[in-house]
């Protein structure tokens, strides 16, 4: 895929402006609902063309820290941040680093008992209702592992510790990937395992709502150890215990372009991880990627910009156009034009 050098400069400048906008929001104390200025005012402030500024705004919107509102009272409006993009970036980085099942569960054994103990000390009536609602959802959706993941995220929220919340959500996303690639002898065995999870969660929730910090911590430790034993027993395929990314998702061609580009970027990142994250390996030409993902050229190129921003992939010029993987901390090559799948060395910074 041939890349215009001017387009590459535009992308780099847009990323710089996006970081400046995000830094300004932080300096101003994250004034949700406030306008940072109209498109014209922002162009003047940053000395950028309309196309560069709009590219920067798309990156800021991707991080869900601000959105452009059109109309006479429009402007770039500060939003409440969402942990989703940061969580996805950390998951990608950990997958690249070859995080194993043992690595993951060792970390969970530290994080989750602490979160349970803090939740028992901090929980309020709203938090109690939240845990009860999650437990009820587990019973209503007995065959869905994702409903079980939600309990751990909800419990971390009750700890009132945002660092624990973020990293427990990351750990649950990784755990789900291991769980989806595990094997069971029968559907009955899988359902029985989910029932045991629900029983464990109910016990932890009871200790938390009773304010019994020591018991909540002990039950959480026991639960993580049980999950560890089950996943190790039912590990499939790769003996290294590395996560196996989920299958490529179906893309909705009717989705808004920006949203579709984000979903596509996540799908491509999963495919890169599934391919073993081979440094400097060509991932595909533009034509091949358009055929594989069945999206428009505009959507694909916007997804590429998101991947480049997180240094997951970048484009290199040359006759063998496509994506390849340059390895950690290496700058994108300036002459060859293939789409390279870079490592996620910067992803954890997002």
Automatic annotation (TrEMBL):
Which positions fall inside the HTH gntR-type domain? 11-81
Residue ranges with Basic residues bias: 233-248
Task: Say which domain of life the source belongs to.
Answer: Bacteria
User: Which Gene3D superfamilies does the protein's record reference?
Assistant: GntR ligand-binding domain-like, Winged helix-like DNA-binding domain superfamily/Winged helix DNA-binding domain
UniProt keyword annotations, A-Z:
DNA-binding, Transcription, Transcription regulation
Query: Could you tell me which Pfam families the record lists for this protein?
Result: FCD (PF07729)
Query: Is this entry keyworded Transcription regulation?
Result: yes
Which SUPFAM superfamilies does the UniProt record give? GntR ligand-binding domain-like, Winged helix' DNA-binding domain
Disordered: annotated segments: 232-254, 318-350
Q: Which GO molecular-function terms appear in the entry?
A: DNA binding; DNA-binding transcription factor activity
- Residue ranges annotated as compositionally biased, kind Polar residues, are 334-350
Q: Which PANTHER family match?
A: GLUCONATE OPERON TRANSCRIPTIONAL REPRESSOR, TRANSCRIPTIONAL REGULATOR, GNTR FAMILY
> By what name is this protein known?
Bacterial regulatory s, gntR family protein
